[in-house]
Amino acid sequence: MSFLDYFRSKKNNTASVAKERLQIIVAHERGHRKQPDYLPALQQELLAVIRKYVDISDDMVQVEIDRTDTCSVLELNVTLPEK
């Protein structure tokens, strides 16, 4: 192995790491593409309504849509604090 081969191998490692990261980002974006555009706004509005009555954080409300061939189901999961 020559001295220049050392630098060439680093580029391959960097390129493969960048490729893996890009694949993760693309997979994440594809998962969000299946969701309707209004879902994040809906989640924020639901969170605002629930906060009128209960003190909760953003991560305590999850909104998802499950689709089948015949219908769509809006699933709302709210973790309420214990008093």
From TrEMBL:
The keyword Iron does not apply. Signal peptide: none annotated. Transmembrane segments: none annotated. GO terms for biological process: cell division; regulation of division septum assembly. GO terms for molecular function: identical protein binding. InterPro entries: MinE (IPR005527), MinE_sf (IPR036707). The keyword Cell cycle applies. Keywords: Cell cycle, Cell division. Belongs to the MinE family. Prevents the cell division inhibition by proteins MinC and MinD at internal division sites while permitting inhibition at polar sites. This ensures cell division at the proper site by restricting the formation of a division septum at the midpoint of the long axis of the cell. This is Cell division topological specificity factor. It comes from Marinobacter psychrophilus. The gene is minE.
